[in-house]
Write a structure and sequence with these properties.
The protein is α/β, with parallel strands linked by helices. The protein contains 13 helices and 15 strands. The protein folds into 2 domains: 222 residues, 3-Layer(aba) Sandwich (Rossmann fold); 120 residues, Rossmann fold, CATH 3.40.50.1980. 32% of the residues lie in helices and 20% in strands. It has a 6-stranded parallel β-sheet with strand order 1-8-7-6-9-10. Strands 11, 12, 13, 14 and 15 form a 5-stranded mixed β-sheet that branches. Strands 2-5-4-3 form a 4-stranded mixed β-sheet. Helix 7 runs parallel beside helix 13. The radius of gyration is 21 Å and the shape is globular. The two termini are 39 Å apart.
């Protein structure tokens, strides 16, 4: 991947006011998460496509249908506020803030539209490695700023909702005021009821925005088929208490961190396979005593690039720790390693992970 130094000129801010290709406006009034927009579903005399509500499929998302611009789509800010984003044409200069957003653009053949990504923490999927090498890294997650985003002159910023704050990438309202529209992944928003269906919705919405609906819908349909296949398998399992699962990370010298049930999308995925996270909130610096008290049936050990020095030995260290042998997951050797982006991101990889977890737990 290429890295560039951005010249944060004040002129970039004023220049961005004149960026063409799309306009955006904040939703009138204070919409609650999931509340319908006043102009949702209305056709305009100019032939504008209907607004697609977050969590709702667009009636225009059908195969072989050309996007009729302008097209408007509602997205959520980090706090659940709804913003209407209007696109006059398909974006050509996109910044992504998370690998799942980058992966989706690559999957849909839109590599040439990507002008910047944030530094990935982990290796990309094998099939995208060469593509990532040609992408420009504009900042890291901890160094990105509104000035860097604006200086890149994007006509779309796409990714998870959380970084769209004044102190990070800039708020949606701020970026919109400078002519820059945003698409936040519905599946990434912690204020909403979540489901893997929201990943499918995001794929179809991106297909609509970029006028690649047929390809997006075919991809979404393939994921829906995979999802339904796992749900069908789950339906054949005898009813019983949910399997207790722990999401563990950074195991070093008997202490570890966790991700909790407040990771809403991942918790919903577990519920789909009749499993539950043993912790409501993620925690740091837990010990063997905590592990014994929580007594998970399955441990999902999440690997990451930042823990590359210790992750390879973590599972063996757990299995060989005499003090925690009473833990069900240890006694039954029910520990599986899964890369961070395969389970904690908000994109298509979660469908494969759901299938992997189902097979690991029940077979």
């Amino acid at each position: 991947m290429k890295k560039i130094n951005m010249f944060l000129l004040l002129a970039a801010l004023s220049f961005s006011l004149f960026l063409s290709g799309c306009s955006s406006s904040r939703e009138a009034g204070e919409n609650e998460a999931g509340e319908e927009s006043e102009n949702s579903g209305e056709d305009t005399e100019t032939g504008e496509d209907e607004i697609t509500e977050p969590g709702e499929e667009s009636e225009n998302s059908v195969e072989d249908m050309e996007t009729q611009y302008p097209v408007s789509i509602d997205v959520y800010g980090p706090d659940g506020t709804v913003y209407t984003q209007t696109f006059e044409r398909a974006p050509t200069k996109v910044i992504t803030n998370i690998p799942s957003a980058t992966d989706l653009l690559l999957e849909l053949g839109l590599e040439d539209t990507i002008v910047g990504i944030l530094e990935p923490d982990n290796e990309p999927l094998e099939k995208w490695k060469s593509a990532y090498e040609n992408l420009t890294v504009i900042a890291g997650k901890k160094t990105v700023s509104k000035e860097i985003i604006v200086g890149a002159e994007p006509d779309l910023v796409f990714g998870r909702a959380m970084p769209f704050t004044e102190d990070t990438m800039g708020t949606i309202e701020e970026l919109n005021s400078m002519g820059i529209p945003v698409y936040t992944q519905t599946a990434s928003n912690f204020t909403l009821e979540q489901s893997l269906e929201n990943i499918i919705l995001d794929i179809k919405n991106i297909g609509l925005i970029f006028n690649v609906q047929q390809k997006a819908n075919e991809y979404a349909d393939s994921l829906k088929e995979k999802y339904d296949t796992v749900l069908e398998k789950v339906s054949t399992i005898p009813e019983g208490d949910p399997v207790k699962v722990m999401f563990m990370v950074t195991y070093v010298d008997g202490t570890f961190n966790t991700f909790g049930a407040n990771s809403v999308l991942q918790s919903n995925m577990l519920a789909d396979i009749n499993a539950v996270n043993v912790l409501e909130q993620g925690s740091g610096s837990l010990t063997g005593e905590n592990l014994i008290a929580l007594n998970p049936d399955v441990i999902v050990y999440i690997t990451s690039g930042s823990n590359a020095a210790t992750d390879p030995d973590a599972v063996d260290a757990l299995l060989n720790d005499e003090t925690v042998q009473s833990v069900n997951a240890i006694a039954n050797e029910k520990i599986i390693t899964i890369p961070y982006d395969d389970i904690m991101d908000y994109g298509a990889r979660l469908f494969d992970t759901m299938e992997v977890l189902y097979e690991f737990i029940y077979n």
